[in-house]
Amino acid sequence: MLLPLNLRTAVLCGYRTVCHGPSWRTVVQHNPRCRLWLVRRGQSNAVSEAGVHPATVPNATTNRIVGRWLIACSGMVAGAVVLGGVTRLTESGLSMVDWHLIKEMKPPSSQAEWEAEFQKYQQFPEFKILNHSMTLSEFKFIWYMEYSHRMWGRLVGLAYILPTVYFWRRGYLNRGMKACALGLCGFVVFQGLLGWYMVKSGLEEKPESYDVPRVSQYRLTAHLGSALVLYCASLWTGLTLMLPQQKLPNAQQIAWLRRFAHGTGGLVFLTALSGAFVAGLDAGLVYNSFPKMGNYWIPDDLLSFSPTLKNFFENPTTVQFDHRILGISSVTAITALCLYARRIPLPGRTRLALNSLLAMAYMQVGLGICTLLFYVPTPLAATHQSGSLALLSLAIWVLAELRKVAK
Ligand code: HEM
């Protein structure tokens, strides 16, 4: 909607810069057309008090619907991450050796079709080196694991794309939300392509390598990292549309708390990414003691690869060491954040978010240590991976509670 030029300038540049009358906020609040404009841009939910007819979209109700959709999508992405983790931990990820968007949706149905699928798998290094005594029924198990991960991925794609089209056509999305929804849909497609790019790295013959066939740890980290970005972006956008804004004390302390919370959230994200390197290199199996690594606080093969930089991404000892340090730094930062927050009079919901984050951080570290001590059993490792999603979700919740309130 086009506003009169003077009002648009007032909203965008701050009324005070163009006029010496009452503050620009007062002007905006008393002008229904201006408030409608803010509602449409998603900067205000004040539909009814703005005197805007509730049928005008987008409005607070449609924002809530879009918010719920995005939170449901983030739940589906979380499901895909968990399923992907279990697929990797059961060593099922390399069982489907090609990729067809539509054709592969129908699983083999006859004995002959299963035999043919098994024959294809037998041409690749995982069967030749690791699974040469595998039976057809064992193959069916790993095949169905990978199949369910891929089919779930398709469902996630539809869950983003179809409602985007629907909401777009119904006018539920303002300009910012249109860009956001398009970005998220693009990201889902990218995520699928990245998944296949990762699987391909595990299917290649590597005659010069004595290692067991596995996907590249770089590609695994990229695949998990981009799933986490999609998850966080959907959850953040959904929560900011759904959570009623709370009044925070307007003090310097809040600005510090917000900055601190952003840094801590970033650290948790980095720890999760470093976990993907641990998983990708099976680095959870090199030192299975805690707090020391074997008999050492700092193992002597920590920097044994050359050049030094290579150790951080390819040396299992260094990768495990880094993950321990990052995990412990994350829990320390979260503890410090919560202690700092105690000094500030915060609303109850924000405090609940902070306390939940703190409890989850200790649980996640406990899970990580147990995963290590018990030599990475699938149920514990999968729970530890899901724990990282829970921790990230709580960090996002804290950030959403502390977000700047549009005045
Ligand atoms: C804030 C704390 C932590 C976070 C967010 C975190 C996150 C993660 C993530 C995302 C993975 C990858 C899982 C996968 O893709 O399957 C992982 C793997 C792992 N983490 Fe952590 N972690 C944390 C702390 C720790 C600690 C303190 C330890 C042990 C001292 C630990 C031990 C492990 C091990 C052994 C694995 C490999 C499991 C496997 O091979 O699947 N983690 N972590």
Automatic annotation (TrEMBL):
It is found in: Membrane. GO terms for cellular component: mitochondrial inner membrane. The chain crosses the membrane at residues 69-89, 151-168, 180-199, 219-243, 264-287, 323-340, 352-376, 382-400. One of its GO terms (molecular function) is heme A synthase activity. It is a multi-pass membrane protein. The keyword RNA-binding does not apply. Its main location: membrane. This is Cytochrome c oxidase assembly homolog 15 (yeast). It comes from Erpetoichthys calabaricus. Its cofactor is heme b. Keywords: Heme biosynthesis, Iron, Membrane, Metal-binding, Oxidoreductase, Transmembrane, Transmembrane helix. One of its GO terms (biological process) is heme A biosynthetic process. InterPro entries: COX15/CtaA_fam (IPR003780), HemeA_Synthase_type2 (IPR023754), Peptidase_S1_PA (IPR009003). It catalyses: Fe(II)-heme o + 2 A + H2O = Fe(II)-heme a + 2 AH2. Coiled coil: none annotated. Pathway: Porphyrin-containing compound metabolism; heme A biosynthesis; heme A from heme O: step 1/1. Pfam families: COX15-CtaA (PF02628).
